[in-house]
Amino acid sequence: MSKQVTRVDTLFLHQTGDDYLVVARRDGKRVLRGKLELKETNAGPRPLRFLVTRKGDDSPRDPSQFVELARSAARIRISQQTPKDGRDELKEMLDGYQLEALTVRTCRRCAVNGRYSPITDDTAIKAEHEHICRDCAVQELEGELSFAGGLTQAAQERLEELLYETGDLTRITNLLQGELDPDLTKFDTISATTEDVELVETETLDLHPNLKSMLTERFDTLLPVQSLAIDNGLLDGDDQLVVSATATGKTLVGELAGINRMLNDDGKMLFLVPLVALANQKHEDFKERYGHLGKVTIRVGASRINDDGNRFDPNADVIVGTYEGIDHALRTGKDLGDIGTVVIDEVHTLKEEERGHRLDGMIARLKHYCEARAKRRESYGGAQWIYLSATVGNPKWLAQTLRANLVEYEDRPVPIERHVTFADGQEKPRIENRLVRQAFDSKSSKGYRGQTIIFTNSRRRCHEIARKMDYNAAAYHAGLDYGQRKRVERQFANQDLAAVVTTAALAAGVDFPASQVIFDTLAMGIEWLSVQEFSQMLGRAGRPDYHDKGVVYLLVEPDASYHNTMEMTEDEVAFKLLKGEMEEVRTVYDQSSAVEETLANIVVAGKKAKALNSRMLGEVPTTHAVGKLLEWGFIDGLDPTPLGLAVTRQFLSPREAFAILDGIRKGSSPYEIVADLELDEEGR
User: What is the pLDDT of residue 230?
Assistant: First the structure.
């Protein structure tokens, strides 16, 4: 400190032991820190010693310099944490120099460290038995986060927001210990919304009498999205892209068109879905609902015998299938008969890196099949196409590209609360158990218990979590056989299960009316969820006929990832998903996918393969793809070679085909070849 004292804005005094801490601030910055010792005189308390602290050393100054400093200050403040005797002593000393001071509430931790931090009822943060300033609270929170493994900036900002809102540090740090505090874990609420749609009365529909009688027995009016579909030409044969939230009645849109055309001898209905589990459930539903009107069959994978023991019948009136099941029939030249309606459920699969190009190609090949058949049979007029999805970021573009009328209904039948809390992998089952119990112990106004879907990233983890539940819970994934899956579905429908724990199998729409969805992880396998997948999965929470609201919990492990190829951490992904916008549905082709789909189109359409490529959703570099097919010996001219036929019928990528050929040449056993392919797929 220079001998000449400059003017300061604030002089702060706080008792520490027998001395007083002195902090001087100017323009918001500390310009001096020191210690003051008083002595008792006939005139009252007066400065005895004044020390200025610099770089950890205390340098003595003439006590009169403290008086000059105090006189230069615009305001003098005494910490409320100073005991009453000390405050009285300081005020008496200052009165002797005709100086006034106010007692203010300050942060004790700052005062101990030589900082002046006034706090108010609005800014004080409760920390155990005292109140501290926001800076100290954030500093302590960051220490807790560091101990917990660290959080990304987005997660830290979220916790700081909650800290300021609650003014209670302990409540926030408890979140990091896996404590559930609904007021704090709640991120937002997606409100229930309804559009003003004039509902169509079922009695007025121009339907086949058998279908109409069934419909009028069940409903007086159609639901809004169904009414919009009717208004947009559903029963006139117009192609449609129907985009609406889960549980709004999209499936019936496809059924109305398909069953009506089937009964009127306008061709059979194909109802196509991405997953075997979903196909099995739709098959059972359709057999029960429409089995008396026509034969219902199922086509999944390459086998003619399905896992329920039934034989696939290509002559059936209603065919439920997976995308790959129907595509295999096309690639192998199966006769599917006259197709009147094609319903593509979960059409947003078109954007998926692994499966999108195959769905895109299958649609082009199936349209080619229907058009070729229409040319051969004058009595058959071709197929009507209905595309269904709950999650499309670019519906207008997609509808235009598919040449379909857009039916968009932005409706949420029940509100959904979204919650975020932090927990490590070992702690998560305890939290899930508590949430499952809370839901199952409650009933909605409709009389249904709360039931839970828990999404996790592996089949092993499904069983691990299910075993740790106090109430009845079951694992549900593609590794279960048909009978096991049906048993779980039946138990859930009867409310005999409090929860199912699943991988991606339920995300695509298997009908489990759950009130609550818990994300045990935000990964599926070794990849993070996309915004679209996340939205699809959380949309399973809350059904209008069962529940008053849906509840979604994200259990986030700080600084966690599940594979070394994952660039982000789980807390970073959580807030990206919660705040993210729906991705656009577009199919992007690289060399491998372009070659695979071009080969399949050549196998199905021969010289017309180029025309099929040009009508696909994504841009396929046809000339380059054909060149590679010739180079690799998959085609001869525009005819598939035996190798090319084998590759396309087994849905092999070029990389997989070459890996198998290499294994055969080396004399590897089939098991070794499959193992090598699996390890390569997992990036090991």
Answer: 96
Output Rg (C-alpha) for the chain, integer angstroms.
35
CA distances from 389 to 247, 386, 535 (A): 11, 10, 11
pTM over the 0.90 mark: no
Cβ atoms of residues 63 and 19 within 8 Å? no
- Give me the sign of the Cα torsion angle 131, 134, 136, 141: positive
Please name which of 124, 104, 106 lies closest in space to residue 116, comparing C-alpha atoms: 106
* Positions in the chain whose pLDDT score sits under 50: 1-3, 303-309, 682-684
Tokens of 172: 């926030």
pLDDT of residue 683: 46
Please report, for residues 353, 500, 566, 610, 656, the alpha-carbon distance to residue 648 in angstroms, rounded to integers and kept in the order given. Answer: 18, 36, 31, 17, 11
Nearest CA-CA partner of 647 in 625, 631, 629, 663: 629
> How far lies 662's CA from each of 595, 659, 676, in Å?
19, 5, 11
Structure tokens at 334: 């199966």
Distance CA 291, CA 299 (A): 16
| Among 602, 601, 673, 675, CA closest to 635 | 602
pLDDT at 54: 85
Residues 277-312 pLDDT 10s: 888 889 989 999 999 999 998 888 654 434 444 568
* Residue 606 CB-density burial (10 A; 0-12 exposed, 13-18 middle, 19+ buried): exposed
- In 10 A of CB 226, how many CB atoms? 29
674: enclosing H helix or E strand: helix 670-681
Give per-residue pLDDT as tens, 310-342: 568 888 999 999 999 999 999 999 999 999 999
Domains, the chain, in order of start with CATH, read 8-113 (3.30.420), 130-177 (no CATH), 202-409 (3.40.50.300), 416-579 (3.40.50.300), 591-682 (no CATH)
